[in-house]
Amino acid sequence: MHTILFSELGLSAPVMQAIDDIGYEEATPIQTKAIPLLMSGRDVIGQSQTGTGKTAAFAIPAIERLIADGDRGVQVLILCPTRELAMQACEEIRKLTRHVEWIRPAAIYGGQDIDRQVRQLHSGVQIVVGTPGRIMDHMRRRTLRLDKVKIAILDEADEMLSMGFRDDIETIFTDVPQQRQTVLFSATMSPEIMEITKLYMTDPEIIRVVRKELTVEEIDQYYYNIPHSHKIEALSRLMDVYHPEPAMVFCNTKKQVDELVSAMQQRGYVAEGLHGDMKQQARDHVMNTFRSGKVDILIATDVAARGIDISGIGAVFNYDIPQDVEYYVHRIGRTGRAGKSGLAFTFVTGSREMAELRGIMNYTHSEITKSSIPTSAQVMECRRLRFARNVCAAVENEDLSDYMEMVEQLADEGISAVEIAAALLKSEMTSGGKAAMPSEADDFAFAGHEYRRDRDSRRQDERKKRCDGRRSGRRGRSDCPTVKIYINLGSSAGVLPKHIVGTVANETGLAGKFIGRIEINERYSTFDVPQEAAGMVIDTLNKTRVMGRRVNARLFNEQY
Ligand code: ADP
Ligand code: MG
Which of 150, 156, 346, 465 could disulfide-link to 223, CB 3.0 to 4.6 Å? Predict the structure, then answer.
């Protein structure tokens, strides 16, 4: 849909200045629709997904109204389902009101010292952002008066209902004047929500950002069909190869979150968990350490992570396939925000989950590509490359003189520099108990599982193997389906089998023994690789030169 610049919205100078300070230029689709409507005073029901900028969509018009009226007292009430969301919304409002000194927002939520909140409310606040329980506390203590409220906003209304705040909303609204503007935002619409809107809203206008705009086009989505028992290894390998930190991993249960957190910690990853059973203080702590970059992997349930805005997530993992298609969009919407492309990995186990995955693809109108867990060779190669890069960077950029002296001392004692480096490398690569080397046995397990699911192609493959077997016999895993890869270089370019083995092994990290029958023709060559490695091998070779010549690699097709 068409969006507009904030400068086209006729906003007041201080708000426009604040928006410039934050750096927003274009209004998001929901903001484009909501801001003019809300400024006209209408009641509005807004539906759009997490991360689409709903806070500013309701906060900007509310602030404009405050500026226009110039009245004192609490005039805007925003209800949020969780403390994190209240804090986050309050923070955004604080930024937006930076240049209007007399407008002060307050976040009012449970778990924080109530006397402090009382003092804050007493000192003069115009915008209250809070969770229902604590707001009712203050209403009872008469430390919060709602009789001047002109705008009431329900943020994440669906979540508020699912957390059982239905009656609290009712209680709070009895104290808010009837003459008011009411705004409701929700990621989903349900009969319960519609009932709320009937009770508290007057002739509301419904705005909705259609699905296509709010998903996932910018996100590269992959799935892996693996047994449950392999998920931890799979997650580790994907983390090692893609290095997407910070990453978010979603599980369906609190128990799974706890188990996975300790498993990943044991493997040496810096991971923390987030779920509803945790004390508020612990949750805040986890969120803060994750935001500040001290934690690489946040493992969470849907509810705990719902609506929390964290930007710059490198990848989202659906460790468990989400129980609801909407959750899928919520979850992966956290990666690739603000125009950056993101990564989403989904683990599925068994045919029932495959069917669910197909449901997700239909619902999101997106393609989720089947992929294979990186092999142990690839993982090792990635670790090696990263290590080499770090070493080079350190040599180039850091003052190593003290350390060089230490090495020289050791060298005087007869230990060679290579031995010293190797010992350090070993401890580096195995630090924190991280499995020293991913095991090839697991490669077979990953592979074996996939092949059972793919019986037809396996049988086809076996037929092919029997034919090939007569001529080849060397290399290759007998139980592993392979595909033939074509490259545009042959004997006329001086290519020999060892060049192919060497290049593939060096460039892709695929161990030589996985490279099957090689055939060198005059103008091209072909060789077999395990099916699950083919995409990676082709991609890598296409960026490589063999014997100084640019490679054109693709799947071999007899017709060419
Ligand atoms: P929602 O409530 O829909 O989940 P938020 O209001 O939390 O979304 O906003 C999500 C993120 O998008 C925040 O980091 C916010 O700063 C950013 N954002 C909001 N509006 C804009 C905009 N117009 N341009 C760029 N970024 C924006
Ligand atoms: Mg929000």
Answer: 346
